[in-house]
Amino acid sequence: MAKILVIGGSLGGLFAANILLRQGHDVTLLEKAIGSLDGRGAGIVTHDALADALREAGIAVDDSLGVAVSKRVTLGADGESLGEMPLSQILTSWSRLYHLLKENFPSERYLQGKNVKTVSQDASSVQVTCEDGSSYEAELLIASDGIRSAVRAQVAPEIQPEYAGYIAWRGVCDESHLSNYTLDTLFNYFGFCLPNGEQMLGYPVAGSGNDTRPGKRRYNFVWYRPASEDGELVKLLTDADGHYYPTGIPPLKVSWKHIAEMRKVARDILAPQYAEILEKTASPFLQAIYDVRSDQIVFGRIALMGDAAFVGRPHVGMGVTKAGDEAIVIARHIAQFGATPAALDAYSNERLTLGQQVVARAQYLGRYMQAQGSKGTRDSNSLRRNADTVMAETAIDISTLLVEGKAVPESL
Ligand SMILES: Cc1cc2nc3c(=O)[nH]c(=O)nc-3n(C[C@H](O)[C@H](O)[C@H](O)COP(=O)(O)OP(=O)(O)OC[C@H]3O[C@@H](n4cnc5c(N)ncnc54)[C@H](O)[C@@H]3O)c2cc1C
Predict the structure, then answer these.
(1) Quick one: the chain helix, strand, coil %, rounded to 5?
(2) Is 287 near ligand 1, meaning CB less than 6 Å away?
């Protein structure tokens, strides 16, 4: 049994902490935030590998994981279908996964209000100090502290998030608020709408209390829109009182003026079904989209995982699944090599290139979105082609493509 520290108590950290604890290790998780992390995320596309990671974490996976859809559909600006594609998927939510993982992990090992400030290591251990003055020591440290990882900033400060040039408006709308037209033509499907150089997508998720009964569910949407880094982005990350949040604006701080503007544009350029959803979503929020591509994820007794290691733009729908995969691989190598740098090196050998491929595929999907129609030459045939490609490539299971090294088409 080894002493292992996990930094970050969101989905990635909870996967690692649960799996390592089940292997019999003495795991302590340090999370900066105080209170529940609920309310941070929205919808999550599941893949078989995500269910595998939940099982490894000791969680039974059944139909209550999420809402099943059987089809994808792309809507034109007039609300008519431009194309459809059969594809069965289970759509869950961030908070569903968070509760499953958090309730499975002993609360006395999940320490909150622990803002990790420094990490250091010697031949036999790794040491951590927190802002509150507390310190911890362990044989290994697994850092799953997100896109702006404090651990990564210490061991590899040169690895920085790079802004992709666009933001995503996100939110969830109650099914019970929607018109029959939107319920009949969109609600039950993984839907898309493709205005020039932009992309709207959405799918049904469970409602309050993980209720998956018809009438009680919600529709989760993500609307990607270009925003220049120095102008539009700064404006959007500034609240109604003029306070600027450079690393991300809290959901409830998003300016009502920006929400009103966004809804107006939605009425002009999106399918009416999506315009209705945006109108009836109580608290839309926004996130700037970044890439993080690491050239190194292991530093002696310290490993980076989850968004601390790689962030692929969400088009690939892989962030949580990737974090679960990485947790499994770390635990498997610790089981084989013990809690040693050799185990982490084996993790790096297995996952570094895969992580880079996920980022590359997400960039490819993002570039495709940005390129389509940007020249203003979208006849109805090219729009249909775009729709077919976007439906076939967005948020699909790419585990086989990753193993074969084909996550990005060879022609690029
Ligand atoms: C628009 C959008 C849509 C997405 N859709 C999907 C999807 O469909 N499917 C999917 O799989 N993924 C999706 N993702 C990605 C997914 O949300 C993340 O990849 C996933 O949550 C993994 O996160 P993580 O645990 O590594 O990091 P985070 O969730 O960022 O958690 C990091 C944790 O570390 C804590 N922390 C930070 N600093 C410190 C510190 N110094 N000390 C202690 N604790 C610290 C933070 O408080 C936080 O709790 C999406 C992302 C976005 C932006």
Answers:
(1) 40, 25, 35
(2) yes
